[in-house]
Amino acid sequence: MPDGKPIYVLNGPNLNLLGTREPEIYGRATLADIEKACAERAQQLGRAIVFRQSNVEGELVNWLQEARDKAAAVILNAGAYTHTSVALHDAIKAIGVPVIETHLSNPAAREEFRHVSLVGQAARGVIAGFGATSYLLAIEAAALLAQQQGQ
Ligand code: DQA
Questions:
Q1: What is the CATH number of the domain that holds 11?
Q2: Range of the domain at 132
Q3: Ligand 1 pocket check for 107: Cβ under 6 Å
């Protein structure tokens, strides 16, 4: 049984459609496939995960606030809210738990409106561009940060 706090993996709008949504950009893995892979990798590292998705910005804010006490680290793929949400930026700053901005695609190599990340300006670090593997790399980073912080 893992004894430290869990890693929260929070997913924003349209990520529930993974598998069929623009597969040439986002790949064929579904969000359920990604959840399973994250849980397995985390378990190997002695961590549990809490994995959630919402299309609603305020729900993501609520979950970040919940993570303040309950999570060792947060992996956040905020989808399009990455590029627009002052509320997510502020929540990340408020909670003091390390947040790893994570993306399947590499927004910096895409349309100009994706080049700004309000999430990234508050996050501890960013992992992007490796498809579903981005999440597994983020699990590694989150587990390491959690361990370093004695969480
Ligand atoms: C995304 C990148 C965002 O720009 C986009 O709005 C998404 C998915 C990604 O994982 O590559 O919804 O966060």
A1: 3.40.50.9100
A2: 7-148
A3: yes
